[in-house]
Each structure stands twice: as C-alpha cells, then as structure tokens.
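User: tokens in, sequence out, please.
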C-alpha cells in the first residue's frame, strides 16, 4: 500500500532537515593548523596555487628522452645515450643527435619532445638505442602546468579536508592551513536508569551506551566534546544542567527524556529555558527529536538538539538531522542525502505515518546489490545498527515488497 500520510504533529524528514540546515550559523573565526593535523577540518578560505603543477616538464615513464625527428632520421643506427637524468635532477639540455636515459618524474631535458618506455628499447653493441614502434612528439611527457597553473583556485572555503585534499596542499608545499574553529558541543545523557561503564550491573539498570556512541560520533565529526555525563531525571536537575551546558558551548546535545511521558523533561524545560523550534519528526526510528534554543529562545541563543533515548533512534536522529546542522555550523556545504535504488530481498509491513529507515546489509553476489535485513529493527536494537551497511528508506505506510526497488542511503555518507 502507498498512501503516505504523516502522523499528526510530526514534521516531514526533508522539512526538518531543511529547517536545521537553514538554522545552522557557520562559526566565525579561523585557526591555523599543520597540514598533517588538518584531516576532516573545514577550510576557512579558498586555497590558491602558488606553483604550476607539475612544476617542470617531466617523464611519465622510465625510459629514454629524445627528439622524435632525430630518431626517425637516425634509422638503423639508433641514437647514442648522451645523458642520465634521475628524478630530482636539474633541467639539462639534450645534446643534438643524442638521447637521455630518464626515470619517472625526472625533468625532461630541453630539446627532447618525447619519452620512449624502456620496454620498447634495445641497446646495440655501441650502446646506441633502437626503438620498436613509433616515437610520437609529446608522448609520455607530463607538461609543466598541465594540471593547473599558479594563481588558479585549488579548493574552496567550506571544503572538508580529506586525504587527497591534504596531499594536494602538501604538493604545493603548504605546511599550514587556515580552518574553521572546532564546534564546542556539550553532551548530556538523561535517565535515572542509566549507569556508567565500570559499575556492576543491576537488574533494570541500563549502561549509558548513548554517551559512548555520541562521543564517538562527535569526535568523528571533529567537534570538541564537553561531556557532562548523566543528569538526574528531574526538571530541576535538567534545568541546571542545561544552564551549565550552554555556557561557552556552540551546541548542546542531549539524549533521552525527549518523548511525551511525565518522566520526559527535555521539552518542557527547553520551553522554559529558551524556545522550542520543533519537536517530533515523522521517522522511525528517531521520532521524538527536539530542536530549540537556550537563553532567550532566539537564534542568538545556544542551539539545543534533543535526541531520543532509544539508542538506534538516537543514532538515526544524529545522522539524518543533527549531523547536517553540525556541518552547517562548521561552514560545510550540506547537500541532499545520497541515495540510489536497491532491490529488497525481504518483505515487511510499512510504518504508519512515518518514513522508516530500515537497517540493511547489501549482498552483491549477483552483480547488483540486494538489501537484506541487518537484524532486529527495534529502536533499542544496536546489533543490526552496528552491522548495517545503510538504510532502505521506506515512505510512510509503504510495505516493502520483495524484489521491488527502494531508495537506499549508504551508511558511509554519515561517517565524517
Ligand atoms: N506514549 C508514548 N511513548 C513513547 C513514544 C510516544 O510517542 N508516546 N515515543 C516512543 C519513541 S518512538 C521513542 S524513540 C522513545 C524515546 O523516548 P525518550 O527520548 O524520552 O527516551 P527515554 O524514555 O529516556 O528512553 C527510551 C529508552 O532508551 C533507553 N536509553 C535512554 N538513554 C539511554 C542512554 N544514554 N544509553 C542507552 N540507552 C538509553 C532507555 O533506557 C529506554 O529504554 O519513547 C517512546 N515512548
Ligand atoms: O522514534 Mo522511536 O525510535 O520509533 O522508537
């Protein structure tokens, strides 16, 4: 069946994402860090090349550099080897009528117009080279500036620096780079049932796994975490903890107590301390997601994101909603969710009124991907979440039919 009607009072996923992305204010200021330590950081300004790339005409092969016309004119006599040019040598001039032994990356001598790979060369008794096949002018020469010229823009402000971008900065000799400041995020967990690691287990208690998960996610997103631990489940304790958390923070992130029961204090305290912007998104898991501002409740206040207590709901809320907000605050460009169609290898009833994010693994054995359930789909079931490759995105009220295609969200897009 497919008659997607959202549950009453809940925001559509795309609308909630768009509102969070629009609300994200990029942090001002910048800090200069060593290129070696800049992985994952966000560029504060455009980077312009100051060297041509490559810096000199150089060889793409181990072989012999020569003038193609001279090789043709020499015929069976071949050409004598007049020079040896290793990588790192200065640019030399090729003597007329001779060739140069050359290595990959070494500067092509002035006058030479091509490099013949050594596999196509034999050395005669006199040491002359003989070439099989043609010598085409320009072959195997990487021209100075063929990739880009000094003065061209290499990277734009807002780019997240991955290994290839860092390598490019290093190839220009940049030792340092100006990046956006790290987002300072205060993290707190609510729930009187929670116990920290190292405490002996007692029936009914729950280890604080969200704290470990969210710390890991925040650190992977290059945030600076101020971990405030567990807050007692009372409005007064939460009020005081949030008031402490907002001081000096760019964002307050809390888990649990965000639903509708009388033990769930996040929403009422947020309403009292500042302003609730929205509460409840039509996704499963992750429905009781709250967004608002502490202090005066305006965008000048400190933003607060309340994630659900159920661990998988908390994970999904982070990935789909909190992470794009964090990226926006980091000055990163935030695009739409990456998705592609994947066939389902299972059948399943749709979720009433909510878009469902079904945790799946992909089987590629038949040459094209088929999605299978990664395990139990309860929002408290971390095992499937930990094994899933991504999510099958099921529109509200839509049953999964085996063999049909549905949008698949690869999990890799949430990793950094
Ligand atoms: N009457 C209703 N009940 C519930 C609704 C609803 O709409 N009406 N929504 C359900 C949904 S959906 C979710 S998700 C949960 C989320 O509730 P809360 O955010 O208020 O979370 P808690 O009640 O505090 O805890 C829920 C669950 O998660 C465990 N938990 C909490 N914090 C942690 C943590 N840090 N580490 C590990 N596990 C944690 C907690 O023990 C509970 O089992 O509400 C439904 N209820
Ligand atoms: O949003 Mo809740 O995660 O459906 O259990």
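Assistant: Sequence out:
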């Amino acid at each position: 069946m497919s008659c997607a009607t959202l549950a009453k009072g809940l925001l559509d996923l795309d609308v909630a994402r768009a509102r969070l992305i629009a609300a994200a204010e990029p942090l001002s200021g910048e800090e200069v860090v060593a290129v070696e330590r800049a992985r994952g950081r966000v560029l504060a300004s455009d980077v312009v090349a100051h060297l041509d790339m490559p810096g000199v005409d150089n060889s793409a092969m181990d072989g012999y550099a020569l003038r193609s016309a001279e090789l043709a004119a020499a015929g069976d006599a071949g050409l004598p080897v007049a020079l040896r040019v290793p990588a790192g040598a200065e640019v030399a001039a090729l003597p007329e009528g001779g060739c140069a032994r050359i290595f990959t990356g070494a500067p092509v001598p002035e006058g030479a117009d091509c490099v013949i790979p050594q596999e196509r060369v034999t050395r005669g008794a006199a040491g002359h080279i003989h070439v099989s096949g043609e010598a085409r002018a320009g072959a195997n020469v990487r021209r100075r500036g063929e990739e880009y010229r000094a003065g061209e823009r290499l990277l734009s402000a807002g780019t997240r620096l991955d290994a290839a971008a860092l390598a490019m900065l290093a190839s220009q000799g940049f030792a340092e780079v100006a990046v956006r400041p790290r987002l300072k995020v205060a993290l707190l967990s609510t729930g009187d049932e929670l116990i920290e690691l190292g405490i002996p287990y007692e029936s009914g208690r729950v280890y604080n796994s969200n704290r470990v998960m969210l710390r890991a996610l925040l650190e992977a997103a290059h945030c600076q975490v101020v971990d405030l631990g567990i807050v007692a489940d009372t409005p007064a304790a939460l009020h005081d903890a949030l008031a402490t958390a907002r001081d000096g923070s760019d964002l307050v992130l809390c888990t649990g107590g965000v639903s509708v029961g009388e033990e769930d204090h996040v929403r009422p305290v947020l309403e009292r301390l500042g302003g609730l912007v929205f509460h409840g998104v039509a996704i499963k898991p992750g429905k009781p997601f709250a967004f608002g501002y502490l202090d005066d409740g305006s965008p000048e206040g400190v933003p607060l994101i309340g994630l659900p207590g159920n661990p998988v709901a908390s994970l999904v809320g982070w990935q789909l909603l909190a992470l794009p907000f964090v990226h926006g605050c980091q000055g990163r460009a935030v695009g739409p969710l990456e998705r592609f169609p994947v066939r389902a290898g299972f059948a399943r009833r749709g979720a009433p009124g909510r878009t469902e994010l079904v945790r799946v693994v992909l089987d590629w054995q038949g040459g094209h991907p088929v999605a299978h359930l990664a395990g139990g789909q309860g929002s408290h079931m971390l095992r499937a979440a930990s094994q899933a490759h991504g999510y099958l995105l099921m529109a509200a009220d839509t049953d999964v039919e085996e063999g049909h295609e549905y949008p698949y969200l690869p999990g890799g897009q949430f990793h950094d």
